[in-house]
Amino acid sequence: MKRRNLLATAAMGLLLASGGAFAQGMDKVKACFVYVGPIGDGGWTFQHHQGALAVQEAYGDKVEIQYQENVPEGADAERVLTQMALGGCNIIFTTSFGYMDPTNAVAAKFPDVKFEHATGFKREHPNVSTYNARFYEGRAIQGHIAGKMTKSNKIGYIGSFPIPEVVMGINSYYLHAKKANPNVELSVVWAFTWFDPAKEADAAKALIDQGVDVIASHTDSTAPLAEAAKTNGAVIGFGQASDMAEYKDGPRVSSIIDNWAPYYVKRVGALLDGTYAQQDAWEGIAGGEVEIGEITAAVPAEVKAEAEALRDAIAAGTYHPFTGPINKQDGSPWLAEGATAPDGDLLGMNFYVEGIVGDIPQ
Amino acid sequence: MLMLEKRPTPSRFWLYATPPVAVILTMIAGGILFAAMGKNPFEVIRTIFWDPVFGEFAFYLRGQLLVKAGPLILIAIGLALGFRAGIWNIGAEGQYIMGAIFGASVGLAVFPTESRWIFPVMVVAGAFGGWLWAMIPAILKTRFNTNEILVSLMLVYVAETILAKASTGFLKNPEGMGFPGSRNFSSYPAAQNGFLYEPLGLHWGGVAALVTGVLAYVLLTRHQAGFQIRLAGQAPRAARFHGVSPARLVVLCMGISGALAGLAGMFEVTGPAGQISIDFNTGYGFTAIIVAFLGRLNPLGIVLAGFLMALTYVGGEMASTNLGLPDAAIQVFQGMLLFFLLAVDVLTNYRFRLAVGAR
Fold this sequence. Notes:
The structure holds two protein chains of two kinds. By secondary structure, chain A is α/β, with parallel strands linked by helices. Chain A has helices spanning 3-19, 44-59, 75-86, 100-109, 135-149, 164-180, 197-209, 223-229, 261-273, 301-316, 343-347, and strands at residues 29-34, 63-68, 91-94, 114-118, 128-133, 154-159, 185-190, 214-217, 236-241, 252-258, 280-283, 290-293, 326-327, 333-335. Chain A has two domains: 26-133, Response regulator (Rossmann fold, 3-Layer(aba) Sandwich); 135-255 and 290-347, Rossmann fold (3-Layer(aba) Sandwich), CATH 3.40.50. Chain A has eleven helices and 14 strands. In chain A, the strands form three sheets. Chain A has a six-stranded parallel beta sheet with strand order 2-1-3-4-5-11, sandwiched between helices. A six-stranded mixed beta sheet of chain A has the order 7-6-8-9-10-12, sandwiched between helices. In chain A, helix 8 links the parallel strand 8 (214-217) and strand 9 (236-241). In chain A, helix 3 (75-86) runs parallel beside helix 4 (100-109). Chain A is globular. In chain A, 52% of the residues are buried. By secondary structure, chain B is mostly helical. Chain B has a domain at 74-296. Chain B is built from 14 helices and two strands, in the order βααααααααααααααβ. In chain B, strands 1-2 form a two-stranded antiparallel sheet. The longest helix of chain B has 27 residues, at 58-84. Chain B starts with a strand and ends in a 5-residue tail after the last strand. In chain B, 49% of the residues are buried. The mean pLDDT of chain B is 89. The interface between A and B is large, with 38 and 41 residues.
């Protein structure tokens, strides 16, 4: 698209929008993706890219896919986004929390391009939508398995950054481990990275040295599982973001799979048929965004059945992983008997629940 | 049989010819790499070197060149002064981070006061932060004879940890719903380093980079300190007889490079980056080392080298998005530039001789 055309389309978009008649579909959509890591990371970015490929699969030559890997969060992201918008992308998915401000800044300049920011909360312009997945639902199932499987009663969690997203995962994991095994103790190690195999391996080692025998991680590489594999079965773990099936014969007993395909297909489809609207999406197991990877034979059949029942109850909406009574770490009440956590509380979660030892880094 | 022979005096021709020859060799080797990956090499090279300046979107990308080149030039000039004197500050990345933290802290401490004095004070604080961080390896070297390469490099990781602490702790945006990262300076006019002229990408950091280039050139060619720096690098013994104090020179060079790196960080955090965040630093401090050598440690050469490096970044991104090249291929391409530069550089001090009959 030439620059003049672009400006013309922008002007037309404004006219249509102000006329309130923006329900026209598109013949062809150029969907662009900004990734924080390499598509071969085996975790977070890999899964987003699978979603992008699913869009291509679903709509064939009605869509064109473009992507950029390893985009630093900050000034560089703003340039990449501007280049994509200038280059004719109709919808741009920015797939990391750190792209929040750049996404909104560029969206202001390109009102006819749709922006979709993963895991953020800022929608400063009508063309910015946000989306996320309820990973804490998957953490509940991991927690249950961890509580049942631990022999040392010590379980671990490798945190990436102390943000609400991660804190709610830790809380959900702990609550359900505790429910399955009242003697369980949780250790949290902060890696301060999303993807750094060396640091992640160090974190896993630190946990194993403390006697932890079940490790969950919120970072994207397979390094924690590789570390667990060195213990010859003494330590188990979970696949994170992707299934990490290559560790099925080893320490991986289950996994949380981020499945972005349904969301990406839906949004690009909406743009094609003209039903696109700004939104804040937060789907979970029920919507297919969060999948629980196969629970292996290392887990006793009875525990596996319980875990699957828990998964199905969450999917059916009959059980919420944060159901009261739950107290905060300092003992003050958070949720009353039978109350479930409002989304606002979860999205701003900056406290541990009662029973977790240690502080969230401040 | 080909032999390498040391030249009696370094070749002036190769001194200036090395960078362009290295660029051309990089294009050829890179083109072969891209062709092997099934891309049209001419299209890729054009996308990287031509399109950002003259292509369809040049009206936007030209400005981005200075945005990207500014911090590289600022840091590289400081480093070059030290490198010329044989003082190896490898930790500019850490000084860059500390400059950003110091500068941002001053601004955020007085938020939301509006005063025209806030930004200048932040500039000074940024330079001070970088200077302070560079003084650690400088003083350890002069007092305890430690190796400044190791100490300054290690301090990068310390600075990164402080950066993580700042984003999740003492500089965290109180209205950020618990998410890491400071307030965004784009919504705080008194402390913002906005564009002075957007089509050229000119903000105060760019101004500082260009002015510093000229000042450093004058310092090296016209000023006593510049003479001492050059002398210390070329003939350390002669420099000592000439009354140059090695300790003073270490403190001076480390101080200048630290302060300039700190300035770069401060301009970046208040301008293009907008906020202190965990991933604020993206390697300018390390890339500037390449820029310093690509520019032959000459301030004016560094200005050109900074723009060339910026071109490979901006154009590389274009090639990656539009032509579907993996990011790693672009990194290899940038790596080739340094490799060929160092390889061709041999010709400055050595020449090939065809040794007939010898073995």
